[in-house]
Specification:
Elements: H1 3-10, H2 18-26, H3 34-54, E1 61-65, H4 67-70, E2 80-86, H5 92-108, E3 113-118, H6 120-129, H7 131-137, E4 141-145, H8 147-163, H9 165-183, H10 201-212, H11 223-241, H12 250-259, H13 265-306, E5 324-328, E6 331-334, E7 337-340, H14 352-363, H15 369-378, H16 388-398, H17 404-413, H18 416-420, H19 424-427, H20 441-453, H21 462-471, H22 482-497, H23 501-512, H24 516-523, H25 529-539, H26 542-559, H27 566-583, H28 598-610, E8 614-620, E9 641-649, H29 654-664, E10 667-681, E11 684-697, H30 705-717, H31 722-732, E12 745-748, E13 757-764, H32 769-779, E14 783-792, E15 795-803, H33 812-826
Domain HD: 441-564
EC number: 2.7.7.59, 3.1.4.-
Cofactor: Mg(2+)
Length: 827
């Protein structure tokens, strides 16, 4: 029970009890949102005014609400921002006693209080030194006492703000940018800070301050609604948690959604993201205007000096004409923005919105908000299918790279994107709960097109690549497999945009299979002919394969740092090379006839001779990429990795032993390939297991090969208890509080392999996961041919190619039983 609730219980009943009245108000379901905030502010005003009056204040004193309280924006757990203002004539002891008579009752109720005691001169001086104080005083509101004293302070503070705007506004802009860098962008965060993140309530306060300077004003459309949405979410968060928090944590989102009467947490996040997007766009437009005005003001004295003190260049003494540079038909550049030409007629020119957007992106200039608003209000709708010019302008817009993003955001702010592509509405502001994803679905699609723009030289049809990039996740707004749903939507949209039947089919195929290459390369055995043939059958043509290769890279780079690496790139490139050979009619090599490499043969012979494990480590710098890879610089930085090759006489328990030793040495497994090699040697013939691992250190330096070999020998002879050691480590580092991971899922993959049965394990990534899988497989008396480990964020997908001990495939019933056994062991 909170201190406020205790006070409410102990307080005498009746309308005069502030704590009881406050609790009653906060739990009224009929009154929420702005009415409740206003009612809570009035209730608090009356209580504080009563405290002020009961303290018999001296003349020349006043109690003032500032900041959020001054705006009457009281959430259930908001701080009370109060200023005790006095004219300096009263005795200091009397002022201190008055302050105590107000502050202590607030503290006694457990309410957070931000307080100060100042004269008007002190308040003004503090505001001059502290930008945040100045911002709070802009919202000063009298609660009790000398109203004239407060009015005079407000007038003075506001005049100072306007006079100092050329200095204070850049300072405020820098403060907002620093805060955004620290807290991130609200519209893309899974656990956003409703107040501090970019696009949050702090930015709304900054926009109010800019408007108060009379220097510029924010776009008003939707801004009040967005502000109310964030305030409502914060109210619900305070009520759901009982804490003064502004961070919308994952574990609180369902309760907050229920408090707001929303369907679920995703609906809540979409509303929050929509609000943040509106505020972010208004912020961008406003600061751009502020900088333009300040730049123009600083240029005027220099211009007057150059003109010899004259006020203008014409005979009439007017302002010099503004230069308008043509960019495209009906589109010009003026004063650093893209605007419509005087002769433009949006009502007669349906391609004008796309032409203006493409011109802006190609020139790296912002679209004027006035131009976008006019286009949204008056532009004639495009016919369906689109004319060729419209399609070309869309491709030009998407091919502009980074400059595409702000132009696309401007079109979205006025609803033009949804009008052009109706299915866009389903992905707009849609959250992605996989933490690997940096962006919402719609922004991820745009970012993928941005990444694809740098890869257009690698494909024969850049236009199809860019459109496929924009649409590849369009099915995420629908139930079921988003790739399947997306294929249908992409087919419709490509036809709408004006592509012919062949090109439409290519775009649809790219959307349907946009995950095929990376999932196959990281989760399947590329030496298995069935793997390569299945991909070739799905892709169909070399042109589509080329398109998918570039789309795969663009998609991964736009997902987030964990989704792409030089290792993944090399696997995908290897798969593409093999599939291209099949599509070109080249025969696939027989994996059974493949000879071991010279190093594998050398290690195998040594293992047969000694009867013990033999190791070789090759350090790899993952920053070093293929010089022909145009996206090498785009790949996420990775730590130095190691290729570890182990050869040892074939025996049970090898996979769990090696995986366990690697886990103990804090090595992350990226790939594992297990091969039984039969070698005729001078010592006789024998079967040797050769294991090729790609690993990287979690942190710190890599272990020495000798230490790995020593621990592996101990693990194989049973003197090293790996499960106990891993359990000790897990107990020493308890998990942080958070959402429980979903249970593991093990399935038999439909891989059509003639070499092995394919088992796919999806589980929460954790040290020793592959060790536990190996132990379960050993207990089931199956042989592991190869293991392919793919980790994305907290999720691991481990694919095992297994056979019976005699090398034959598992019958379907045995495979299903094995999957159930694995699921039980991992659960």
């Amino acid at each position: 029970m909170t201190s406020l609730e205790v006070s409410a219980q102990n307080e005498e009943p009746g309308p005069g009890g502030y704590a009881a009245a406050r609790l009653l108000l906060l739990h009224e379901k009929e009154r929420s949102g702005p009415p409740r905030r206003a009612a809570l502010a009035r209730l608090t005003d009356d209580w504080l005014a009563g405290l002020f009056a009961a303290a018999a204040p001296p003349r020349g004193t006043a109690l003032v609400a500032v900041g959020g309280y001054g705006r009457s924006e009281l959430s259930p757990r908001s701080d009370l921002d109060l200023l005790l203002l006095h004219d300096g004539t009263a005795d200091k002891a009397a002022i201190a006693a008055l302050a105590d008579r107000i502050w202590y009752p607030v503290w006694d109720l457990g309410l957070a209080l931000d307080h100060s005691v100042r004269t008007p001169a002190e308040a003004r001086a503090t505001a001059a030194d502290d930008l945040k104080v100045h911002l709070g005083l802009l919202d000063a509101r009298p609660l009790a006492g000398d109203a004239g004293l407060v009015a005079a302070l407000r007038t003075t503070v506001l005049a100072d703000w306007r006079n100092q705007a050329p200095r204070r506004l850049p300072e405020l802009d820098a403060l907002c940018r620093e805060r955004a860098e620290r807290a991130g962008e609200l519209q893309f965060l899974l656990e956003p800070d409703l107040k501090e993140a970019r696009g949050g309530l702090r930015d709304v306060q900054a926009l109010r301050a800019v408007a108060a300077s009379w220097l510029a004003d924010a776009p008003r459309e939707g801004l009040d609604r967005a502000r109310r949405a964030l305030l409502d979410a914060r109210d619900a968060l305070h009520l759901a948690t009982g804490r003064a928090t502004d961070r919308l944590a994952l574990q609180e989102q369902d309760a907050v959604a229920a408090e707001l009467g929303l369907l679920d947490a995703d609906t809540l996040l979409r509303e929050v993201y929509e609000a943040a997007r509106t505020i972010s766009y208004a912020t961008d437009v406003t600061w751009r205007e502020v900088n333009r005005v300040l730049k123009a003001r600083s240029a005027r004295p220099r211009l007057r000096s150059l003109l010899g003190g004259r006020s203008g260049t014409g005979r009439s003494g007017g302002k010099p004409p503004v230069e308008r540079t043509p960019l495209a038909e009906g589109v010009v550049e003026m004063d650093g923005e893209v605007v419509l030409a005087r002769t433009a007629r949006p009502e007669r020119d349906p391609v004008l919105p796309l032409r203006a957007a493409a011109a802006a992106a190609q020139s790296g200039l912002p679209l004027s908000p006035h131009a976008v608003r006019r286009l949204a209000a008056t532009a004639k709708p495009l016919p369906v299918p689109w004319p060729a010019e419209a399609r070309e302008e869309l491709v030009t817009l998407l091919g502009a790279g980074e400059a595409t993003v702000p132009v696309w955001e401007a079109l979205e702010a006025e609803g033009i994107v949804t009008r052009l592509l109706p299915d866009w509405e389903r992905v707009r502001c849609r959250p992605q709960r996989n933490p690997v994803h940096t962006w919402t679905v719609d922004r991820h699609l745009v970012e993928t097109a941005v990444r694809a723009a740098s890869l257009t030289r690698r494909v024969g049809r850049p236009d199809l690549l860019l459109v496929a990039a924009l649409l590849h996740d369009i099915g995420k707004g629908w139930p079921g497999d988003h790739s399947v749903a997306g294929e249908t939507i992409a087919r419709d949209l490509a036809a709408r945009v004006g592509f012919d039947r062949t090109d439409t089919a290519t775009v649809a195929t790219a959307v349907r299979h946009h995950l095929l290459l990376v999932e196959t390369a990281t989760r399947r055995d590329l030496d298995d002919p069935a793997t390569v043939q299945a991909v070739a059958a799905a892709v169909g043509t070399l042109g589509t394969l080329e398109l998918l290769h570039a789309l795969t890279e663009a998609d991964a780079l736009a997902t987030g740092p964990a989704a792409w690496s030089s290792w993944r790139a090399s696997l995908v490139a290897d798969l593409v090379k093999r599939v291209a050979g099949v599509l070109a009619g080249e025969p696939l090599p027989d994996p059974g006839a493949a000879a071991p490499s010279a190093e594998q043969e050398r290690l195998a012979i040594e293992a047969l001779r000694t009867g013990e494990p033999v190791l070789a480590l090759h350090t790899r710098d993952e920053h070093a990429a293929d010089p022909d890879d145009s996206a090498a610089d785009e790949a996420a930085p990775e730590p130095v990795g190691v290729e570890l090759v182990i050869a040892l006489p074939d025996r049970p328990g090898v996979l769990p032993a090696v995986a366990g030793v690697l886990a103990l040495h804090r090595l992350t497994v990226r790939a594992a390939d297990l091969r039984a090699v039969d070698l005729p040697t001078g010592l006789g013939s024998g079967s040797v297991l050769v294991l090729d691992w790609r690993v990287a250190a979690e942190y710190g330096s890599l272990p020495e090969a000798a230490r790995l070999r020593a621990d592996l020998v101990r693990a194989l002879d049973g003197s090293l208890d790996i499960p106990a050691r891993l359990a000790e480590r897990e107990a020493a580092y308890p998990r942080r509080r958070g959402l429980a991971a979903p249970p593991p899922r093990v399935t038999v993959a439909a891989a059509d392999s003639r070499l092995a049965t394919v088992i796919e394990v999806r589980a929460q990534d954790a040290p020793g996961l592959l060790h536990r899988i190996g132990r379960a497989l050993e207990g089931a008396a199956v042989r592991v041919r190869s293991a392919h480990v793919s980790t994305l964020g907290a999720n691991a997908v481990d694919t095992l190619y297994v056979t019976r001990p005699d090398g034959s495939l598992l019958p379907p019933e045995e495979a299903v039983d094995l999957a159930r056994t694995l699921e039980t062991a991992l659960g």
